[in-house]
Design a protein that fits this description.
The protein is an alpha/beta fold. It has twelve helices and twelve strands. It has two domains: 151 residues, 3-Layer(aba) Sandwich (Rossmann fold), CATH 3.40.50; 127 residues, Rossmann fold (3-Layer(aba) Sandwich), CATH 3.40.50. The strands form two sheets. It has a seven-stranded mixed β-sheet, with helices on both faces. It has a five-stranded mixed β-sheet with strand order 7-9-8-11-12, sandwiched between helices. Helix 10 links the parallel strand 11 and strand 12. It starts with a helix and ends in a 6-residue tail after the last helix. The relative contact order is 0.11.
Length: 303
């Protein structure tokens, strides 16, 4: 099932759902025909989009709104914080082409700080599915919640069949005594391939899909820290405020110390390029991920 198919199916069953967009119809082209007046396009007006959604939510509706992730989370931030966050309204924010998925564009069209921005709003939930399969497994529970939520909408096809979704629960793919990779979003596929490469080199590598970042699965992080000699956080986000910060906060809260390798964007802007070029330049291909982890592991094995 695709994102659009799930959206139409869910909206037809629940008349409270209103689908909205700020002239970003790539994921919802067939929705106007299916929902009629329950589809609203405000034009390129993200602030108006959020304000209208908040008003509809106050009247008992469940708005699912769509816009390009950087413009939704930054241009409309005050409206999200004030109109949606403070009132704790069930507005569902669908951030399209999040992270570095805006192929061929530079920093103005990349949302590499969206997780930090959105998780800073009290009561706002944050979800980052690994691929389309993970996305459609996650959304029914997210849309059914009374809480506001931001979703990094990732509709890329993946090779992995995910387990059922539960809010606040990570998906444990494998446990590893040497290294555990914690990842979210479309880099999950590269992490899965990197894990396979490292396993062939003799490392015992765990892999966790951190699909729910707020609420986050603290128990999964703590368990990985206690069972592995090194943790790796992998994300297409600035290092500050993302998964690396989340893991650090959890470990500090529980008084746990473990060697941790962050793989994220440092405090600098990257050059525009195609997605393949960005991943290669930033060391986020499966081979470069595996190589950096292997060279950083410093593990010695008996013959």
């Amino acid at each position: 099932m695709t994102y659009e198919e799930l959206l139409i199916q869910t909206a037809l069953k629940d008349e409270r759902i209103i689908v909205m967009t700020a002239e970003n119809r790539a994921l919802v082209r067939n929705v106007p025909r299916a929902l009629g007046g329950r589809f609203i396009d405000t034009g390129i007006t993200e602030q108006t989009l959020v304000g209208m959604a908040a008003g509809l939510a106050l009247r008992g509706r469940i708005p699912i709104i769509h816009a390009l992730a950087p413009f939704l989370t930054m241009r409309a931030y005050e409206f999200i914080r004030t109109d949606v966050g403070i009132a704790h309204l069930p507005v569902k924010l669908s951030g399209y082409i999040p992270g570095v998925l805006s192929d061929g564009n530079g920093p103005t069209h990349q949302s590499i700080e969206d997780v930090a921005i959105m998780r800073g709003i009290p009561g706002m939930e944050v979800y980052c599915p690994a691929d389309e399969d993970d996305l459609v497994r996650s959304l029914p529970a997210i849309w059914a919640s009374d809480a506001p939520a931001y979703v990094r909408v990732n509709h890329k096809k993946g090779s992995y069949t995910h387990r059922p979704f539960e809010k606040g629960q990570a998906e444990i793919i494998a446990e590893g005594a040497d290294v555990t990779i914690l990842v979210y979003g479309f880099l999950f596929e590269n992490a899965l391939k990197a894990q396979q490469l490292l396993t062939r080199e003799g490392l015992f590598v765990g892999l966790i899909n951190m699909r729910s970042l707020k609420p986050v699965d603290e128990a999964a992080i703590v368990r990985a820290a206690k069972r592995s000699r090194m943790l790796v956080t992998l994300e297409d986000h600035l290092k500050t405020g993302g998964l690396y910060s989340i893991v650090a906060e959890v470990l500090l809260q529980y008084g746990i110390t473990v060697r941790t390798l962050p793989m994220a964007f440092e405090e600098r802007w990257f050059k525009p390029g195609l997605l393949t070029e960005v991943l290669e330049a930033e060391g986020l291909t499966p081979e470069k991920i595996a190589g950096k982890i292997y060279s950083s592991s410093n593990l010695v094995y008996a013959e």
